[in-house]
Request: fold
Amino acid sequence: MPDYGRVTAYRSPAGFGIRLDAGTAYSGAIITRFYDSLLVKVTAWSPTPEETIARMHRALWEFRIRGVVTNLRFLDQLITHPRFASADYTTKFIDETPELFRSPRKRDRATRLLSFIGDVIVNGNPEVKGRARPKQAVFPRLPRVALKAPQAGTKQKLDELGPENLPTGCWRSAASF
Reply:
C-alpha cells in the first residue's frame, strides 16, 4: 500500500549510468493518498547486466527519503536476487518469491543521531540536568610547533611584481552556466 505524508528529508543518487525522473520528490513535499505515490523513477544503464544491477543497487542505497515509507529495500531485494540476476524469472516472479518481502529492518541511525543532537542543543543534555556548571572552563593546551613560513604563491607574486609586470598566460578564465 503506498504511503502518504510529508517528506522530511530527501537526497537522491547520481552518477554515470543513472537517470532520475522525479516530480514530487523533495524535502517538505506532501504526498497525499489521492494521487500517484510515485516519487522518483530511477533507471540504470551499462554495457552488461551485472554492471547495471550493481549501479542500480548503489543508487537504491544512496537514496535518503524520510517521512514516508518507500519500497526501496524491496526493489533492492528484487534486483539482487540470484534468479533476477541470471534472468531466470517470469511475470510470476514476485508472487513466487516470498523472500523478496523479508528484508532486514532499517535502523536509520543517522536520523536518530541528528534528532538527539538537535534535542540536546535546544533542550540541554538530560544526563547533566541539575548539575552545577564548572567554575572555570578548561581548554587543552596545544603543543608548541615551529612552523615554516608558507611558500610564496600567486598572491605574493602579484604583490611583488604588480599587475602590469605579471607574465602573460598566468591567468585563466572560467565560465559558469
The chain has six helices and six strands. The two ends are 42 Å apart (CA to CA).
